[in-house]
TrEMBL record:
Residues annotated to bind a divalent metal cation: 271-272, 295
SUPFAM superfamilies, per the entry: Aminoacid dehydrogenase-like, N-terminal domain, NAD(P)-binding Rossmann-fold domains
Family, per entry: Belongs to the malic enzymes family.
Residue ranges occupied by any Malic enzyme N-terminal domain in the UniProt entry: 106-286
Protein name: Malic enzyme
InterPro entries on file: Aminoacid_DH-like_N_sf (IPR046346), Malic_enzyme_CS (IPR015884), Malic_N_dom (IPR012301), Malic_N_dom_sf (IPR037062), Malic_NAD-bd (IPR012302), Malic_OxRdtase (IPR001891), NAD(P)-bd_dom_sf (IPR036291)
Chief location category: mitochondrion
PROSITE patterns, A to Z: MALIC_ENZYMES
Catalytic reactions of this protein: (S)-malate + NAD(+) = pyruvate + CO2 + NADH
Active site per the UniProt annotation: 129, 200
Species this protein is from: Dipteronia sinensis
Compartments, record wording: Mitochondrion
Length: 603
């Protein structure tokens, strides 16, 4: 069951610094200016003189050779001066300026970019990931300078099997795929949603050490139903309504077959699909391909780890989870994913049937409390709908405020995409919670879509709450030297480890057991002392360490379920015989780290 004290004794506080070990060579099939224009290989002024000679670069760069450390320091200096120069300007202006400077480096020199990202992940994650990535998607057509990733559109039907060979890398390990239909809480952004796979894959490189030459962000452009975009003359996607039904599925099928044909071991993460397709594609592909849906499955594991953390924060044994009353707001792919994983965990703990366990959970959507009396009740939400009369005084469609007042929940968890719906009235009602330490999870992204701000949560619900949000907020000063701690409850704590474990085990598919192992690993990561202080998740600074641990847990689960087919030279038998230490070593040894490798030209 849940092993509690397996807590990281050796936290990796700092990533490897500028090491003096000589890295292995890297084969390159180009020469001269082509190398300078390829961000995978470009070292800018960092090319040593001998390499300039070997690769036909002599004379194409200023003569002085600048070390990686100096280049890094120079970049950070310009980043810091940009911070200084934009001080006091509106948030969106500052964030976009920061995104631009990072993006320019990304486009020019990936080694330096990823080193800067890894070493400053806490500062940079909010730029390349939520919340700024949302703003970038919204302004994509204006910000577009050069493409990144691949774009498969409805017009490419019948061509995908050959198109996939247009991608220049021989091997791809990780693909993040979206159709742009539900980008964060921002709705249908069509082709502009490509920013999300790019941001997620940046996190894969930074947290899981996936080699950036082996990642592929993909946009499946099947049209958009966003009228504003359809009318925007600069819109870069297909100007047609979204494909529906079989026509839609044929496109996704063709893409999945094409990927599988070229890279049978690549892992495909589905991201930010509207709910109906999120569930349908997961069911359709999860046994046939090594894939998962991050919004349904990654989010569920992170939320479950947080829910278990709140039990510990109350000083109660984990088994008390089965007595917690949890109100989930949002009956979409994320909310329902959380509910189904949480129900399974609770029924395992209580030895109950899932039907009994469901009593402790309450589901609220845009039409209020979800009950079996709901007209056109969504079949996916039906298992969590309350029976008529099940809760005295609450009927179908009861408002969130009524539900909170009546239920007095231990946890209020928002995945609605609607900013501010945990308003003053709702938050004040949480003061009557039956918990000694009520928890408020405002998990919707980006920041403006969070159900409440951290400051409002502590102000209205009280100083003793546990708080988590999907996008980062500053800790809250509660006065008298007390601090209200802000957790970031974001699937970034799990998806990189799920992908890493699946990749290094060579998993045939991604099972519930592997996802459960990931969630358990995160749930047991924090110390009692941290949890008592309301800290439920590791700091973003240690994301590489938690990801390695999650990766190991996922790999072990894949081996135990006989889903592991091996990776590279390491076969399934060897995986089976690895000790825990050997697995940990195997994982970290396979995590890419940005250093300049000697480039060797190969024709
Ligand atoms: N923190 C994290 O790691 C994650 C956060 N999310 C966030 O969760 C949000 C929802 O994502 P999905 O479930 O995929 O979206 P979805 O569109 O599938 O579902 C949204 C749900 O919210 C409900 N809703 C809308 N207005 C409401 C209101 N006023 N009151 C109560 N419920 C309301 C809808 O009825 C629907 O059930 C997004 O903002 C997304 O950014 C999603 C995945 C991970
Ligand atoms: C974090 C994430 O996956 C989302 O907001 O959709
Ligand atoms: Mg998402």
């Amino acid at each position: 069951m849940w092993k509690l004290a397996r807590v990281a004794a050796t936290r990796l506080t700092r990533s490897r610094r500028f090491s003096t070990a000589i890295p292995g060579p890297c084969m390159v099939h180009k020469r001269g200016a082509d190398i300078l224009h390829d961000p995978w290989f470009n070292k800018d002024t960092g090319f040593p003189l001998t390499e300039r000679d070997r690769l036909g670069l002599r004379g194409l760069l200023p003569p002085r050779v600048i070390s990686f450390e100096q280049q890094y320091a120079r970049f950070m200096e310009s980043y810091r001066s940009l911070e200084k120069n934009t001080h006091g300007q509106p948030n969106s202006v500052v964030s976009l300026a920061k995104w631009r400077i990072l993006n320019r480096l990304h486009d020019r020199n990936e080694t330096l970019y990823y080193r800067a990202l890894i070493d400053n992940i806490k500062d940079f994650a909010p730029i390349i990931y939520t919340p700024t990535v949302g703003l970038v998607c919204q302004n994509y057509s204006g910000l577009f300078r050069r493409p990144r990733g691949m774009y498969f559109s409805a017009k490419d039907k019948g061509e995908m099997m050959s198109m996939i060979y247009n991608w220049p890398a021989h091997q791809v390990d990780m693909i993040v795929l979206t159709d742009g239909s539900r980008i964060l809480g921002l709705g249908d952004l069509g082709v502009q949603g490509i920013g999300i796979p790019i941001g997620k894959l940046d996190m894969y490189v930074a947290a899981a050490g996936i080699n950036p030459q082996r990642i592929l962000p993909v946009m499946l452009d099947v049209g958009t139903n966003n009228q504003k975009l359809l009318e925007d003359r600069l819109y870069l996607g297909l100007r047609q309504p979204r494909l529906e039904g079989e026509e839609y599925l044929e496109i996704v099928d063709e893409f999945m077959e094409a990927v599988h044909a070229r890279w049978p071991k690549a892992i495909v993460q589905f991201e930010d699909f509207q709910m109906k397709w999120a569930f349908e594609t997961l069911e359709r592909y999860r046994k046939r391909f090594c894939m998962f849906n991050d919004d349904i499955q990654g989010t569920a594991g992170v939320a479950l780890a947080g829910l278990l953390g709140t039990v510990r924060a109350q000083g109660r044994p984990l088994t008390d989870f089965v007595n917690q009353k949890i109100v989930v707001v949002g009956a979409g792919s994320a909310g329902l994913g959380v509910l189904s994983m949480a129900v399974k965990a609770a029924s395992r703990m209580a030895g109950n049937s899932e039907a009994v366990t469901r009593n402790q959970f309450f589901l609220v959507d845009k039409d209020g409390l979800v009950t079996k009396e709901r007209n056109n009740l969504d079949p996916a939400a039906a298992p969590f709908a309350k029976a008529p009369g099940e809760i005295a005084g609450l009927s179908e469609g009861a408002t969130l405020h009524e539900v909170v007042k009546k239920v007095k929940p231990h946890v209020l968890l928002g995945l609605s995409g609607v900013g501010g719906i945990f308003n003053e009235e709702v938050l004040k009602a949480m003061r009557e919670s039956d918990s000694t330490k009520p928890a408020i999870f405002a998990m919707s992204n980006p920041t403006l879509n969070a159900e409440c701000t951290a400051a409002d949560a502590f102000k209205h619900a009280g100083d003793n709450i546990v708080f988590a949000s999907g996008s980062p907020f500053e800790n809250v000063d509660l006065g008298n030297g007390k601090v209200g701690y802000v957790n970031q409850a974001n699937n970034m704590y799990l998806f990189p480890g799920i992908g890493l474990g699946a990749l290094l085990s060579g998993a045939r598919s991604i099972s519930d057991g592997m996802l459960q192992a990931a969630a358990e690993c995160l749930a047991t990561y924090m110390t009692e002392e941290e949890i008592r202080r309301g800290i439920l998740y590791p700091s973003v600074d240690s994301i590489r360490h938690i990801t390695a641990e999650v990766g190991a847990a996922v790999l072990q689960a894949a081996v135990a379920e006989e889903l592991a087919e091996g990776h590279g030279e390491v076969g399934p038998k060897e995986l089976q015989h690895m000790s825990e230490e050997e697995i940990a070593e195997y994982i970290t040894a396979n995590m890419w780290f940005p250093v300049y490798s000697p480039l060797v030209h190969e024709k």
